[in-house]
Amino acid sequence: MTTFEHKPTLTGDLVILRPISSADADDMWADLHDAEAMRLTGTHSSFDRDQIDQWCASRAGQVDRLDLAVVDRASDGWAGEVVINEWDADNRSCSLRIALGPGARGRGLGTEAIRLVVDYVFDQIDDPPVNRVSLEVYDFNRRAIAVYEALGFRREGVLREVLAWDGRFHDAIVMSMLRSDRPA
Ligand SMILES: CC(C)(COP(=O)(O)OP(=O)(O)OC[C@H]1O[C@@H](n2cnc3c(N)ncnc32)[C@H](O)[C@@H]1OP(=O)(O)O)[C@@H](O)C(=O)NCCC(=O)NCCS
């Protein structure tokens, strides 16, 4: 039986996904100073270094989520993170988020990382099996929307003006993939 308590290592052609550990704190800290990623993910909050150290060190012990480092196989270095969270066992649904660093974007890594983690969640978690993976993406994030749609996520609706950024409000698009949406 496999649950979210188990932390896998998933290998693709371009990336390896592996559990985040305390050794990743420097890279995560650097990514939190990437203004473009903060805009694309709508991250207003600021963190201090101790919080990031504690966050990275505590990821392996989480029983209801997966926090995986995206490792660029070309350099063997950190490219970012992909996270499955908000696990709702009663309804067998969870959420997905991803953030790659500036040098990692636009090279196919994100598409492969999401495919790897989604395949894992639907195909390997079995106690209980996952039925739904959802996400929210801001309407200005055209690249992310293109990636999610190419992978088979479907648009569900719009959260109107949920993000205040740079003096105006922005909508978020809710997307999901159901087990029944997946190719047989
Ligand atoms: C979103 C993200 C995960 C995508 O991963 P990525 O590795 O950069 O994307 P990929 O290179 O795999 O694919 C990008 C695709 O989007 C397309 N694309 C890029 N910019 C686009 C745009 N403005 N409009 C439409 N499509 C666009 C590319 O052509 C490519 O499609 P293709 O493979 O058919 O050519 C990554 O860019 C990221 O982490 N960004 C910062 C944080 C973020 O936006 N997170 C998501 C929050 S919901």
Tell me what the structure shows.
The chain has helices spanning 25-31, 35-41, 49-58, 109-123, 142-151, and strands at 10-11, 15-19, 66-72, 77-88, 93-100, 132-138, 154-165, 168-178. It is of the alpha+beta class and 184 residues long. Strands 1-2-3-4-5-6-8-7 form an eight-stranded mixed sheet, sandwiched between helices. The longest helix is centred in the middle third of the chain and has 15 residues, at 109-123. It has a domain at 10-131: 3-Layer(aba) Sandwich (Aminopeptidase). Helix content is 27%, strand content 35%. Bound molecules: coenzyme A. Residues 37, 40-41, 80, 98-100, 105-111, 137, 141-144, 146-147, 150 line the site of coenzyme A (COA). Coenzyme A binds next to helix 2, strand 5, helix 4 and helix 5.
What's the gist of this structure?
The protein is built from five helices and eight strands, in the order E-E-H-H-H-E-E-E-H-E-H-E-E. With 184 residues, the chain is of the alpha+beta class. An eight-stranded mixed β-sheet has the order 1-2-3-4-5-6-8-7, sandwiched between helices.
